[in-house]
Design a protein that fits this description.
Elements: H1 2-10, E1 14-20, E2 26-31, H2 40-53, E3 61-64, H3 70-79, E4 84-87, E5 100-101, E6 110-117, H4 121-132, E7 140-145, H5 148-151, H6 159-171, E8 175-178, H7 184-194, E9 200-203, H8 213-226, E10 229-236, H9 240-248, E11 260-264, H10 270-278, E12 285-289, H11 301-310, E13 318-322, E14 334-337, E15 345-346, E16 352-353, H12 356-362, E17 367-370, H13 372-375, H14 380-398
Helix pairs in contact: 2-3, 7-8, 9-10, 12-14
Bound molecules: 5-iodo-2'-deoxyuridine-5'-monophosphate.
């Protein structure tokens, strides 16, 4: 693999520098996959690495996403005698009008090969189309994709998003714990026990009995020791001046200890701007609530899109979004999803659960927020580890394999 990377650098398929991508983002890495067509041996080598990386997924067909991934998929198809499918960009306007070309029967399993993935939009579209045609898609393999670590290098990534993404990459966890317990003492015990497994510890300070300054000092000490970030799910929704007082003052003095908070979009950008002014460190940030996990939520459609747009007025402070789907394809934002359990279902009070595999792997968000799935378990540590494993596997399945 390292040799292959060296050769990709030699022949300028892989380049380091400053590149402005089609999306307008500036990237320190650029993959010009078309360059590889002049080096058939390298193309075959890369196809073989993809084959090795995808071995444990059982598939009968291989599908290339046009155009540049097609030679890769073809190579795999010929070498390993796997029938090839092509997903057209547009259905033909004449003839059979098939969007998936090739020979297959519904129920067969297909591997999708893509050359470069920035955020996975077109590859996920391909997966959806193959699934609509009755095929199973266990795994997506790409020759290059953006990891959490790489996203920290984008100049548009906010300081808090950079902290969170690097921590997730280093600690290898994309699980945030929703510590919805009754008292501060219980919250501290949870932080001590599960801290090594998580990237963020989310609380509702106003729902914890016995809140005082000593609590947040002790929590901050545990957070530092076990390396996780403190998340107050306050959902600010008032006019700027009031939101600011709720952030800085009162009993909770949130701005003094929370690394990140949630803000509703309903009041417009003024709350965000006021919170940013009151922020105790430029490394702290906020997530905008752009969708909610509960049944009947009004944060859908145009509201969701407007919430995402709003973030742009406060790029240094907004780290990303609370959402249940990929509300933006811009990799500088971090997408955080609550309403996650190992089994899908509900809580009888409006909460709707999706699995880690569904949200991270298929929908393409970044962090799972898990509360009762872990807290109500008999063995909280083993359960937290199971969520961590499932969410990390789903992430690794989404980013570069080779
Ligand atoms: N939470 C949601 N859904 C949302 C938002 C926040 O569940 O849309 I915004 C919070 C509420 C709770 C946690 O603190 O995430 C989920 O807890 P459970 O995993 O116990 O359902």
């Amino acid at each position: 693999m390292d040799e292959c990377t060296d050769r990709l650098l030699d022949v300028q398929v892989l380049k380091f520098g400053t590149y402005t991508l089609r999306t307008g983002l500036v990237s320190p890495v650029y993959v010009d996959f078309r360059e590889i067509f002049g080096f058939p041996d390298l193309l075959c080598e890369l196809a073989e690495l993809i084959f090795q990386a995808s071995r444990e997924a059982q598939y009968e067909l291989v599908c290339g996403v046009p155009y540049t991934a097609l030679p890769l998929a073809t190579c795999l198809s010929i070498t390993h005698r796997l029938p090839l499918l092509i997903r057209r960009k547009e259905a033909k306007g004449y003839g059979t009008k098939r969007i998936v070309e090739g020979k297959f029967v519904p129920g067969q399993t297909c591997l999708i090969v893509e050359d470069v993935v920035t955020f996975g939009t077109s590859i996920l579209d391909t997966a959806r189309i193959l699934q609509q045609a009755g095929l199973k898609v266990p795994r997506i393999i790409s020759a290059a994709a953006m990891s959490y670590g790489q996203r920290t290098l984008l100049p548009t990534t906010a300081p808090f998003a950079t902290r969170l993404l690097s921590l997730m990459e280093e600690k290898r966890t994309n699980v945030a714990l929703a510590a919805d317990v009754l008292s501060c003492a219980e919250a501290l015990a949870l932080a001590e026990e599960l801290g090594p497994e998580i990237c963020m510890f989310k609380i509702h300070a106003d729902a914890l009995g016995g809140f005082d300054e000593s609590f947040h000092l002790r929590l901050a000490e545990i957070a530092k020791r076990h390396r996780f970030l403190l998340f107050e799910d306050r959902k600010f929704a008032d006019i700027g001046s009031v939101a600011r007082r709720q952030y800085e003052g009162g009993i909770f003095r949130i701005s003094h200890w929370a690394d990140v908070v949630t803000v509703h979009a309903v009041a417009g950008p003024s709350a965000l701007l006021s919170l940013q002014e009151a922020c105790s460190s430029t490394d702290n940030g906020a997530f905008i609530v752009s969708e909610m996990s509960c049944q009947g939520s009004l944060a859908v459609g145009n509201y969701t899109q407007a919430a995402v747009e709003m973030a742009k007025v406060c790029r240094d402070f907004v780290a990303g979004f609370i959402c249940t789907s990929r509300v933006t394809t811009d990799p500088s934002w971090v997408l955080v999803t609550p309403g996650v359990k190992l089994q899908e279902g509900g809580d009888g009070q409006g909460q709707q659960y999706l699995t880690p595999e569904e949200v991270i792997g298929r929908r393409g968000t970044d962090v799972i927020v898990v509360g009762r799935g872990i807290i109500d378990a008999d063995d909280r540590l083993a359960t937290a580890q199971a969520y961590r494993h499932a969410a990390w596997q789903a992430y690794e399945g989404r980013v570069a394999q080779i």
